[in-house]
Amino acid sequence: MWQKILDKAAAQIEPHTLYVVATPIGNLADITLRALAVLQRADLVCAEDTRVSQQLLSAYGIRAKLISVREHNERQMVDTVCAALAAGQVVAQVSDAGTPAVCDPGARLAAGVRAAGFKVVPVAGASAVMATLSVAGVTQSDFYFAGFLPPKAGERAQWFERWENVPYAVAAFETPHRIEAALAQMAELLPGRHLLLAREISKTFETFISGSVAEVLAAVRADANQTRGEMVLVLHPAEEAETAGLSEQAQHIMSLLAAELPPKKAAALAATISGANKKALYEWAVAQKREE
Question: Which has more pLDDT, 40 or 265?
């Protein structure tokens, strides 16, 4: 049955077209039949690393002409790809793993090819972000994908502070050599938030660590193996604060302070003075600004 599906996918492939093909993020079996059909038919395969892509093609017995299209030469390769498309060829774009142009090269190539008047078609497949979200237990339908966390601590702290009261989940990538520092900083700024760390998704040592940010940090520090491999973080939304119980006095104090200070600083000071919940005070001030 699957051979009929593969044949049908192959019959639908069009010349003069760039196909942006998602490849497995770990387990080779995660490739789609449509991706195999495109890669078998492609006259040219643009690869982030030709050695990595050659291993994937060889695993499925596919022989294709590979060229390197990386971040440093992506703009220049637009002309090469467009010339191939103009000649009626089928071109595929792949990255080392996952979907091209998502924290990987590919966006400039797709834009350049489309601007030249050729079709650019996505071939959907494995996604580390969606795979992690699917097991994170996030019930909200919206989320924010941040890409890779900043390498510098100061900028990273600014990101975490912006996420303190967001009502949606945040998904982000982090590298092995920075994961402990990033988690330590997150634990300091967002200690009570729920976090899922997914590591090596679909691979032999696939691991999921779930808990408060502090608990995830402790688990990583307790096992050096947890600082290896590809990583995705999903920070759960901030819990909604109960603002209805704020006293008139607390609201008055917050309104006075919020007129002179940023909401976050005003809420911290108002909580100290009134004894009210800091998050509730912050949410109340934000609601007041919306009404205004």
Answer: 40
